[in-house]
Amino acid sequence: MWWWAYTHDGPGFTMFGPAHMGVIVSLFLACVFIVLMRNWLKESVKRQNFFRFGCVTIFIAGEVFLQFWYIDAGVWDPSFALPLHLSSIAWIAAIFMLLTRSQMWFEITFFVGAGSAFLTILTPDVGNYGFPHFRFLHFFITHALVIVAVVYMLAVEKMQLRFRSVFRVWFYLNGYAALMFIFNLWVDGNYMYLMETPPGPSPFDWFGPWPYYIFVLQAVALLVFIGMYGLYWWISGKFPSSVNKRSP
């Protein structure tokens, strides 16, 4: 079963190859579908619950299968296998957002989750696992679903963002990074890539060697958050029927 093997000899991953582009196009179409069908979804609590709990189920099932995959291959180790990377925090925050409709969890999922998921989908750290390997499917479905969940909360649940949310979430992120730095020292890990850059090509490569790229990333994260808020502010002004009225 090459599609499940940890070390496989099946199709490899090609950046912006047919499978990668298929993911990007599918994500775009899914987001457009949510926006176009927002009124249909709002008309029925059953449809909303089906979407919300369906996403939660996929997130949890994906992590369960991922952990089993590591264990089955005999490679599970706390230095890398725990759901503590930024991508894991994204889907965990998305679960709390979908279940509670909390403003705080929405802000975290929007800035940390959707922002990192979008960049990760464009420059994925998926090794050489090509479609339809389990790791390929798990990686892209999880990241894409975070973005789809955020679009749902904006278009259907009419969640709002405030400019101060940018700085609040940025402080949350820095606090979490500080904890992960200590945890990395304890388990000899590299969660959030705080100890070294990812093995494959990534935006980290643009920001210099360790530890300098960490400080550059802090500034970049803040600028990205501000840019994301600016995009939200512009869309909410241009298309007020698609998202809720923007907040200062």
UniProtKB/TrEMBL annotation:
The domain of life is Bacteria
Q: Which Pfam families match?
A: TMEM164 (PF14808)
Keyword Membrane attributed: yes
Q: Mind telling me which InterPro entries this protein's record contains?
A: CHP02206_TP0381
Q: Where are the transmembrane segments?
A: 20-38, 50-70, 82-99, 106-124, 136-155, 167-187, 212-235
Sorted alphabetically, the keyword list is: Membrane, Transmembrane, Transmembrane helix
Q: Which named protein is this?
A: TIGR02206 family membrane protein
Q: Which organism is it from?
A: Salicibibacter cibarius
